[in-house]
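Consortium newsletter contribution from the modelling node. Members have asked for a concrete example of what our holo predictions look like. Here is one, prepared for the ribose-5-phosphate complex that several groups have been discussing at recent meetings.
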Amino acid sequence: MIVPGSTSQELAAALAAELDEPLAAVEYDRFADGERLVRVPETDDRAVVVCATVSDHAHVELLQLQDAARRRADEVVTVLPYMGYARQDEAFEPGQPVSARAVARAVSTGTDRVVVVNPHERAVCDFFDAPCEAVDAAARLAAPLPELDEPLFLAPDAGAVALAAAVRDAHGGGETDHFQKHRVSDTDVEVRPSDARTAGRDVVLVDDIVATGATMSTAIDQLSRPARVFVACVHPMLTDGARTRLAAAGADGVYGTDTVERPVSAVSAAPAVADVL
Ligand code: R5P
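And here is the predicted structure:
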């Protein structure tokens, strides 16, 4: 039985349909002081909890769902469509925590197995005490793209090139390249252009996450006279103002998957997750 978190109701329903499994009618509540409470009315022997930890509340809700499911199911599998705090996968300054490890340990206490969709780094899986697998849903991003003319699939940094190549291959070919990125602060990045010609071509910028939109809007600024520019990401976090920032920079379309449920979530990661389950 698929047990959805409140942040992953679309994806959980798509996954239930994909696997032909029942969907638990979870109730979500909150107390006057803001604390959350869930109720899982029923589960099978095997419960698959699907919850994108896009906020601190969602992290707590996931732990609650696991605990409630564990009371009834023999096996609890946890799907993290989006793993919050995964980008703090090392202590970047003295005194900082490895937040991804702290979160992974907590999640591991309530589950027999973990599936994470496009964690920021695959090595994050090693932080879980429970067996963990990473799912790559990037190829799903080819579906919502229109017909492209002389397509160029560009990653904002070398780390995202495999994602750009996956979208390119699923779309049917084209050139792939990447920028060089330097993050100045949480909301500010510097990007050095690639050598690939962009004039007159349709450019698809591909990354794992779009959060503030700083990376993608700065990358768009570097493009010289492209025909059209599309932004594609697995996790469209899109914090306040990010969508407008991308439009103002010149994006002709923004697409993401439903690992983070937003208006731009044009395609479901469910088939990719179902393959692993
Ligand atoms: C970081 O390396 C990630 O791959 C993304 O590039 C980053 O999270 C995007 O964040 P923002 O939209 O705030 O620039």
